[in-house]
């Protein structure tokens, strides 16, 4: 694989140079000579119908939208992202404030708003929650193709209108609907990866009047590919104990190729009838992911050598890991609203489902033995998570400036998990003459026996929620406000088939969640925004199973706790924003979260399965934490400098937190200290072209659990695009991403017991690096 990556270096450099060279073609002043400024069109959120030509041929640079209403919301329309051709909603969110990721290189899956773990961020699709496959209840945004998106909203503080699962805030992905598009377009192109692999990208969207209403339907097919190289160096001690650890304590080196290859299929459709006093809407989306993750790993007893098996060579183990992933995610909901003399009543009924089917095999030959040993493992994972929801809401005018809104919410959630495993193990004397570059351990597989249940891996969870909410909102001159209460009740039951008792266990809890927000327009350009809200975070699914997981935390055991309550947090946001230029905005926001009932692992005092010095740990609501920071963002044209067709945008967030675990103080796990990105777009109207670039960097993240500590750092990310417009209906765009050969580095401190972790007596110290090369894409769109 190293040879393959090296063989395309000349191609990579040439493509980078071509994009950079085209981006520097005209001087800014010449490009804008005698070009008149154009006003920004109304955003989709304001109810305007956008033509397909507006989407395909963008006549202006997109900036952050200024949102009215009391809530602290940042809104970004598709024109803000599209020119950089993000593949997924996660890729698009790399350009907005305070969103970090702890994903593999060139992937953006679990968003971490304010740097907190994904479970603290509420993910909404069209304003409604969707189920995900992750144990922390998070939803991976790489499941949503960017082509389906109309706009993205960052909701910094919560409202009584929405469920309260939003300690860090909410990310609302609004998909296109029938009243936002007139016409259609087709999209096609290809992506080129660093290992000389090409992947296709196709899509089509149509919106228009059909019968008494308006229809939008769109589909997308996306080839996905991510080739990475990984390397690990492992030692028996660390530099904090021994400055000469690299030579004195070397244990082994692992070289790994990791390639993720797959196809995504998606469909989005809406149909709406505007009947004046009565409106009806039905919409849905479907996303399917077929992916294969292939890893090949070699462990050597030398920092540099790559010869064959021990004892004559250096090869300790040869490992082949393949995971076949088939995931489906779909949502369908209908909404009926009627306006009558007593106000406006709306009823929304929805169903969402997420299924995850994975079949992972791992074959390994261990040569560091008198007789080589072959092991084969099969893990079968099946997760089915569905939610049925009903929301009833009524809004009535109290006066000309004040409105009362109240309603109820019902959710029926069912999650079934089945994780089964089987292992084969036997000696392979013939493997003494093994050639790791010509043969694969998969060759030695003779089949698997019956699958067995894994502790905590086979369970059914039922969660029933009934919420009531009421709020009052108003506007007087330049002052808008909202204040409300939400009362959430939850009945949770779990049956784990791997626990001997097998009885239904669970918990019931209720939470009162007040919230209030305001916006005050000091002038036509200046605004102050403030909010306070109480939110919660529900326990992770893997913590509420009553199963005992042996040696899950180093050599310590983990016992689940079905009686866990949600974490709760009081939060404050206070910000200021100013309108600049024709449509630009600059803003700053301060936030603070005081988290109570934090779920932390506690020592039960019971000896663990590994004997003396190990214990059984159980999660309990025993901790407190604080999260705080400052967020700055700006997007504007440079018309005030005589450059109306030059747009700049950027944001920077400083993120911090405090928490105390059994080892002392730390930040919330894996919270980056900072994240920033900035860029510019130059529109060349005289020749119907544009170019631009973005640069992004996020700070170091540290995480600590019992048995392991990890520090993660990422390299910077640079993207460049060039586009050429042909008339009013055709655009072709070239994009280069990950142009700095993104790298992810992790430092692992591993321990066997809690005492060892306190005394800094290492079981293993590991340095791991992961790298991927640039990705180039050429995409064309044609409007009709």
Automatic annotation (TrEMBL):
GO cellular component term of the entry, any: cell outer membrane
Chain intervals for the UniProt region annotation (Disordered): 227-263
Domain TonB-dependent receptor-like beta-barrel: 257-739
InterPro entries: Beta-barrel_TonB, Beta-barrel_TonB_sf, Plug_dom, Plug_dom_sf
Places the protein is found: Cell outer membrane
Residue spans of biased composition, Basic and acidic residues class: 253-263
Entry keyword annotation includes Aminoacyl-tRNA synthetase: no
Domain TonB-dependent receptor plug: 77-169
Pfam family of the protein (one): TonB_dep_Rec_b-barrel
Gene3D superfamilies: TonB-dependent receptor, beta-barrel domain, TonB-dependent receptor, plug domain
Signal peptide: 1-31
Alphabetically ordered keywords of this record: Cell outer membrane, Membrane, Receptor, Signal, TonB box
Family: Belongs to the TonB-dependent receptor family.
Protein name: Outer membrane receptor for ferrienterochelin and colicin
């Amino acid at each position: 694989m190293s040879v393959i990556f090296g063989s395309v270096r000349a191609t990579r450099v040439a493509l980078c140079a071509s994009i950079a060279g085209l981006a520097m073609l005209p001087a800014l002043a010449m490009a804008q000579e005698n070009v008149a400024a154009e006003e920004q069109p109304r955003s989709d959120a304001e109810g305007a119908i956008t033509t397909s030509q507006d989407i395909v041929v963008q006549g202006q640079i997109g900036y952050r939208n200024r949102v009215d209403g009391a809530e602290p919301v940042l809104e970004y329309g598709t024109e803000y992202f599209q020119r950089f051709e993000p593949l997924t909603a996660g890729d698009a969110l790399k350009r907005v404030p305070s969103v970090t990721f702890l994903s593999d290189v060139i992937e953006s899956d679990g968003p971490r708003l304010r740097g907190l773990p994904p479970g603290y961020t509420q993910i909404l699709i069209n304003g409604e929650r969707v189920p995900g496959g992750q144990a922390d209840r998070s939803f991976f945004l790489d499941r949503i193709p960017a082509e389906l998106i109309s706009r993205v909203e960052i909701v910094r503080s919560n409202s009584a209108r929405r469920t309260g699962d939003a300690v860090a805030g909410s990310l609302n992905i609004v998909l296109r609907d029938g009243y936002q598009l007139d016409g259609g377009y087709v999209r096609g192109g290809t992506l080129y990866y660093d290992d000389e692999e090409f992947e296709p990208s196709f899509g089509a969207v149509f919106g228009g009047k059909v019968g008494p209403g308006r229809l939008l339907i769109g589909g997308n097919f996306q080839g996905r590919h991510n080739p990475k190289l990984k390397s690990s160096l492992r030692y028996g001690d660390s530099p904090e104990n021994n400055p000469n650890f690299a030579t004195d304590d070397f244990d082994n080196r692992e070289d790994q190729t990791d390639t993720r290859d797959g196809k995504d299929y998606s469909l989005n459709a809406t149909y709406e009838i505007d009947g004046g006093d009565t409106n009806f809407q039905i919409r849905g989306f479907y996303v399917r992911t077929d992916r294969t993750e292939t890893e090949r790993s070699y462990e050597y007893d030398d920092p540099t050598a790559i010869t064959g098996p021990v004892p004559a060579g250096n090869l300790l183990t040869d490992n082949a890991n393949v995971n076949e992933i088939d995931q489906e995610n779909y949502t369908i909901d209908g909404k009926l609203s009627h306006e009558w003399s007593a106000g406006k009543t709306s009823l929304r009924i929805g169903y969402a489902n997420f299924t995850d089917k994975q079949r992972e095999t791992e074959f390994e030959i261990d040569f560091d033995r008198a007789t080589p040993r072959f092991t084969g493992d099969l893990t079968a994972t099946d997760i089915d998570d569905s939610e049925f929801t009903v929301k009833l809401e009524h809004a009535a005018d109290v006066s000309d400036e004040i409105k009362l809104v109240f309603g109820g919410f019902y959710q029926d959630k069912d999650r079934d998990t089945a994780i089964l495993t089987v292992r084969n193990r036997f000696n392979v004397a013939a493997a003494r003459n093994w050639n790791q570059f010509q043969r694969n351990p998969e060759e030695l597989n003779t089949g698997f026996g019956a699958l067995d249940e894994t502790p905590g891996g086979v369970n059914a969870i039922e969660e029933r929620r009934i919420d009531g909410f009421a709020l009052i909102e108003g506007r007087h001159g330049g002052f808008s406000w909202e204040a409300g209460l939400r009362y959430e009740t939850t009945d949770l039951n779990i049956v784990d088939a791997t626990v001997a008792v097998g009885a239904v266990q669970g918990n019931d809890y209720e939470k009162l969640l007040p919230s209030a927000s305001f916006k005050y327009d000091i002038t036509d350009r200046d605004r102050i925004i403030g909010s306070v809200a109480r939110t919660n975070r529900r326990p992770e699914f893997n913590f509420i199973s009553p199963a005992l997981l042996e040696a899950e935390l180093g050599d310590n055991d983990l016992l689940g706790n079905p009686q866990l309550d949600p974490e709760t947090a009081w939060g404050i946001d206070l910000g200021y924003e100013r309108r600049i230029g024709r449509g630009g905005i600059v803003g700053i926001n301060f936030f603070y979260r005081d988290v109570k009932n934090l779920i932390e692992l506690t020592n039960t005092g019971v000896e663990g399965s590994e004997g003396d010095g190990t214990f059984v740990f159980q999660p309990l609501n025993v901790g407190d934490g604080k999260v705080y920071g400052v967020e700055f963002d700006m997007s504007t044209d440079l018309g005030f400098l005589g450059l109306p067709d030059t747009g700049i945008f950027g944001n920077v967030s400083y993120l911090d937190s405090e928490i105390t675990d059994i080892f002392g103080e730390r930040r919330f796990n894996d919270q980056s200290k900072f994240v920033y990105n900035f860029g510019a777009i130059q529109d060349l109207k005289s020749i119907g072209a544009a170019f631009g670039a973005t640069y992004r960097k996020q700070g170091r993240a540290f995480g600590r659990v019992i048995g392991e500590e990890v520090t993660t750092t990422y390299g910077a990310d640079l993207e460049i695009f060039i586009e050429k417009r042909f008339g009013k209906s055709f655009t072709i765009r070239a994009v280069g991403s990950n142009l700095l050969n993104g790298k992810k580095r992790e430092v692992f401190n591993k321990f066997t017991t809690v005492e060892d972790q306190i005394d800094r007596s290492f079981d293993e110290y590991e340095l791991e690096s992961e790298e991927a090369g640039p990705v180039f894409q050429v995409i064309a769109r044609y409007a009709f």
